[in-house]
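User: Second chain of the day. Same drill as before.
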Amino acid sequence: MEILREKPSRNPKEVLTFAALVLLASVTLLTTAGIVLSLLGEVLQFFRRVPLAEFLLARDWTPLFAEPRYGISPLIAGTFLVTAIGLVVAIPLGLALAVYIAEYARGEAKARIKGTLELFEGIPTVVFGFFALLTVTPLLQKVIPGLNIFNALSAGLVLGFVILPYVANVAADAMESVPRSIREAAYALGARPYEVALRVVFPAALSGIVAAIILAASRAIGETMLVSIAAGQRPILTLDPRETIATMTSYIVQAATGDQPVGSTAYYALFAVGFTLFLLTLLFNILAQWVVERYRERYE
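Assistant: Same format as last time:
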């Protein structure tokens, strides 16, 4: 007996819903394409005037001097210096908090901790910037000689608490996704709770934890107001956290609110720095996605 299989017809409401979801999902791609297109023309104008080798290798960033130099290395060094200090703070605290959320906190306590982290994410970073400048820096100056008013250290320390919720929430979600059966098997073998958390669950969720750290680093690289207020706007090539520095984002703030004539090389330099920042954050996000896909544990 032959059975005829017909493709079921779609309900008009389902078709409209599907189309709406595709449209909304396309917004991200269209936004990314719009950013690239809006920057590309000005970036090409910049590199017609400034050699790529100078942009990447020169050690000075002085676009407004009589003899301008356009070496982005001081801005990149400042960006990664502040980011590194922030990660030193955020990684241990964030992972410890993630272990507590995923393995120890229960019920109302767990909900309160997660709610507090979400509330922490909503605090404007300009508030953190003034906190770093007016509170953290004076305290550090009492114990660290030679610390400037504007410095990378206080900016990085406070930045660590800004990105801490990203590390804690994403890492906790990764640990909570580990099947309960793996925990029960470890307990059946006589493991203690801390051994289950650190030697069983943590390694099983390692890909998600690494992705959380990478995404937090991407968030730190793109931070603007905190570093503009607390770290300063002096582009020098240094790894001394006591010094006043400039990051890519702080230069963008400075240049966007300055008086660079439209069409000048300094004007186009703003777009070159913005495009570099965009590529770095895009690279970090792609790396995080690759880590998750490459090292994710799959359970039946």
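The chain has a mean pLDDT of 86.

User: Great, on to the next one.
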